[in-house]
Automatic annotation (TrEMBL):
InterPro entries: DNA-bd_HTH_TetR-type_CS (IPR023772), Homeodomain-like_sf (IPR009057), HTH-type_TetR-like_transc_reg (IPR050109), HTH_TetR (IPR001647), Repressor_TetR_C (IPR004111), Tet_transcr_reg_TetR (IPR003012), Tet_transcr_reg_TetR-rel_C_sf (IPR036271). One of its GO terms (molecular function) is transcription cis-regulatory region binding. Gene3D superfamilies: Homeodomain-like, Tetracycline Repressor, domain 2. This is TetR family transcriptional regulator. One of its GO terms (biological process) is negative regulation of DNA-templated transcription. The keyword Repressor applies. Residues 3-63 form the HTH tetR-type domain. SUPFAM superfamilies: Homeodomain-like, Tetracyclin repressor-like, C-terminal domain.
Amino acid sequence: MTKMNREIVVTEALNLLDEVGLDAVSTRQLAKRLRVEQPSLYWYFRTKKDLLAAMAQAAMAPHANAPLPTPEDDWRAWFLENTRSFRRTLLMRRDGARLHAGSTPTADLDRIRRKMSFLIDSGVPERDAQMAMLTASRFTVGSVLEEQADAGPGDSPDLPPDTPRIDHESAFAAGLSLIVAGLTQRVPT
């Protein structure tokens, strides 16, 4: 029997995710990987949904540990880097965007409040700051979902082989620029 704790279970669940993808992650497969009986996992996670929430939180650690903005930071540069950091973190895991989608960032609420305060203190109207953070988050998750699902034009029988391949990085950068440009127009000078 493998010595277990909550952290080991989550780490192994994320390793399983990277190997088989979100659809194939199961408590049965995880128990087999840990060399334990499946019911022993319930000591740490009452439901698979609880396990997935812990996995999502752990997968977001690189972004959750990124430096918070300082008063000297330019809000536009910070907003761009914060969103890029979120994207990089989602891309670190197979099906990272799917794992994250629909999760509630309860462990990150203080950081979110501090980010919002920074934007507001920088002159972004409160409602616009809220909507910009939500829009950037959903845009990023959607972009990464598409990127992680992209089989490439040559791999899809529905598309002609000469269909141009999407440069996901450039498309993301262009969309993010549009969000920041729109928000900039809302900030009083």
